[in-house]
Amino acid sequence: GLATPDRHILRMCTCLVISFCWFNRADTGVRLQRRHVSATPLGIAINIQGKTIARNQAHTLLRKHDHASDPDDLVNALLQRWFDISAPFQGADSLFCYLSNDEKLEAPIVTKWLVKCAALVGWVAPSGEKWTGHSLRSGGASACQAIDVPLFYIMSFGVWKTMEAVQRYLSALILPSDAAWLFFGWLRPRHEP
């Protein structure tokens, strides 16, 4: 997504990365409005009002720039690129991942985008598994757990209120990886990867 000249691929990658980084449900990924996303000198932020079903809470979840875990700032660079490219044709109430006013985005599109983007980089789901838009929510939370991100942070970003709720999304089979560090190392207490 960082180098593609194709706006459709860039917006698919943006939606997937936002969903993964903030443990979004697929419907949140496509219903997120531009006014809920901010590009700041500290990083990219999502107002939690844009993330929750009830829409009755309001605080910001900031994904900070972190050169220890993402030295080339790849995640924020991708999100910033879409933020800048989409600015001329999006208003504050526009869906953040839309390309045109007549476009209708529904949650199942996230699964299609995930499969398409995975195919573009040569990835396929392991035998017997199926990747869906919801895989981004559980995958992000599980990647955090794999690199020992404190559970409180995982719960806060995923807007899970109880241990019982978050446990359904965590897999002990996910191992630490460079990708987990790249996306979530900034959430760890200050230790080098």
Structure, described:
The chain is built from eight helices and three strands; from the N terminus they run H-H-E-E-E-H-H-H-H-H-H. With about 190 residues, it is mainly α. It has a three-stranded antiparallel beta sheet, covered by helices on one side. A hairpin with a 2-residue loop joins strand 1 (about 35-40) and strand 2. Helix 1 crosses helix 3 and helix 1 crosses helix 4 (about 110-120). The two termini are about 25 Å apart. About 35% of the residues are buried.
**Helix-strand topology string:** HHEEEHHHHHH
Low-confidence stretches: none
Order of neighbouring strands in the sheet with most strands: 1-2-3
Distance, first to last CA: 25 Å
Topology:
Elements: H1 7-21, H2 26-31, E1 37-40, E2 43-47, E3 60-64, H3 74-86, H4 108-120, H5 133-146, H6 151-158, H7 163-167, H8 178-184
Antiparallel strand pairs: 1-2, 2-3
Helix pairs in contact: 1-3, 1-4, 1-5, 5-8
State the gist of this model.
This protein has 193 residues and is mostly helical.
Task: List the main descriptive attributes of the protein structure presented here.
single chain, 193 residues, mainly alpha, 3-stranded antiparallel beta sheet, 8 helices, 42% helix, 7% strand
